[in-house]
Input
Amino acid sequence: MADVEVFPLGEVSVAHEPATPGEVVAGKPTLGTTPITTLGDTGVEIGIWEMSTGAVRDIEVDEVFVVLEGAATISVEGAAPVAVKPGDLVRLSAGTATVWEVTSPLRKLYVA
Output
């Protein structure tokens, strides 16, 4: 591996598939993930994740992400919904049950 690697994020394409029917809360959302690299042999993956408009349920992994494009509200039972937009850095904890309501197609850079 090179000492310095550059990943032009704007050029990373993400293939989408329809969300799993049991996870869909509203709309007909599609999702996709493209892994980009890993941090050495730690198993930590860095990539791009996208979702079209709509709402889905998810069980999270330990993750930090930066919203690159779009807008969404992330809801966790018993807590106030959290709105995210470009430039926001978000931390999710493993096992958290969430509902993602995407109002503008979302693109995020994740580290998980």
The chain has one domain: 24-111.
